[in-house]
Design a protein that fits this description.
Largest sheet: 6 strands, mixed
CATH class: Alpha Beta
Radius of gyration: 16 Å
Strand content: 25-35%
Bound molecules: inosinic acid, magnesium ion
Helix content: 10-25%
Number of helices: 3
Length: 178
Amino acid sequence: MARVTILDKTFETSYPESQITQAVAKVADAINADLDGRDPLFLCVLNGAFMFAADLMKRVSIPSKISFVKFASYSGTQSTGVIKQLIGLNEDLTGRTVVIIEDIVDTGITIENLVKQCKEKGAADVRVATMLFKPGNCKTPTKPDYVGLEIPNDFIVGYGLDYDGYGRNIPEILTLVQ
Ligand code: IMP
Ligand code: MG
């Protein structure tokens, strides 16, 4: 895939499928090595992380469970730093090792919020696995523990990430052409 137009914007391939596959395998290997015997609970943050979670979990070989969570969205007036309500979490986290699966960590506010909520619910160890990390934009002390690819501060789509709802199904990662 070379150039793709989504709505009014043009995107260009930055990371082809082969590179994504390698990055996912690296994350899975690290998790398999670190968390063997810990019976971790993976929490896939919907919508964006669905594709990374599916590929990652196929390579996780240690006994574990997966669940899916989402933030209730408040349309329009969501300002940064506001604690958003987590929905879909039915598991008892008491004493558990939790691995949050995210598509991207940008400012870090989403994961900071989620890690805090998991700890408040009694999780003993909370880690974050993200396909993409924009270190240049991250404003929080909470950093992801497992990172597929570190990327510059550009807007991207594909591999679960969207532009206005479109592009999540693209199997590669594309960057906005300025
Ligand atoms: P945060 O800034 O780390 O809290 O990230 C919040 C959310 O912004 C992510 O989970 C994504 O849904 C979205 N996001 C951040 N950067 C991008 C991007 O480049 N493309 C598409 N969505 C993004
Ligand atoms: Mg997301």
